[in-house]
Amino acid sequence: MRKGFTIGETMVATLILGIVLAAVMTTFLSAQRMLATSMAESELALASRGLREKLLFHVAPAVDGVHYAGMLSGTNSSWVVETGSHNILMQMGALGTSLSDVRPQSVRIIMGGSSGGWHFVNEHIPNWVQYAGWLWPRNVSLVDSLMSDVVSYETLGTKATDVYRVGIDINLMTKAGGVSVYRRERVSVPLMGRIQPMKDISGKY
Questions:
Q1: What is the pLDDT of residues 25-35, one digit of tens each?
Q2: How many beta carbons lie within 10 A of that of residue 89, not counting itself?
Q3: Environment class of 58 (CB within 10 Å of its CB; exposed 0-12, middle 13-18, buried 19+)
Q4: Are 198 and 204 in contact (CB under 8 A)?
């Protein structure tokens, strides 16, 4: 009766074990990367949704008892997108202590942050530096560093007063297992009090 394995048998068993372990590790790493990417995509979807809701309905948190509106409540008799910089400048009304307490306010959305941490900032909030993170989903940053890369507008003419809809391209990025994951979403904001045309400037419906 044999009490051990020959060198050949041991080498064959080791080779088979190595092949099995390599297959298992490859499958595990692939599954781990897929899970990390899925989690990152879910995080980006939530961050994009949250940023969109804030831009449209609450461009600032409640400050000193004043509840701030969003871009959907914005009205302008002059420009909306600043020439050159493409910063967003809008007028609106904020609700105070009651529905009849309407307080005029304005919003000016600019690009804040630095490389690797770009985000929107509403600099017309009182003590805006304290609330600079309101439009910044944490751990998720904008890819674009210039407002001109993010903001566009549709118009029926050539004057700033002819702008009837503002577009914002939210392009977010985060890391998942050393890989960059992106999500891009476009927010189109009609200006209240402006006629929304049946056709755009190119004649398309």
A1: 777 677 767 77
A2: 19
A3: middle
A4: no
Beta bridge partners of 108: 89
> For the purposes of burial, counting CB atoms within 10 Å of the CB of 104, is it exposed (0-12), middle (13-18) or buried (19 or more)?
exposed
Note the Cα 183 to chain centre separation in Å. Answer: 8
Q: Is 180 left (phi over 0), alpha (psi -120 to 50) or beta?
A: beta
Measure Cα distances from 127 to 58, 63, 117, 121 in Å: 16, 9, 21, 12
- 113: region left, alpha or beta (phi > 0 left; psi from -120 to 50 alpha): left
Longest Cα separation, the chain: 100
Beta-carbon contacts of 95 under 8 Å, excluding residues fewer than 6 positions away, are 66, 67, 69, 101, 102, 103
Distance CA 200, CA 29 (A): 49
Q: Which of the residue ranges 32-41, 56-65, 111-120 would you say has the lowest mean pLDDT?
A: 32-41
Structure tokens at 86: 């493409």
For 129, the token pair is 């530096």
* 0.90 exceeded by pTM: no
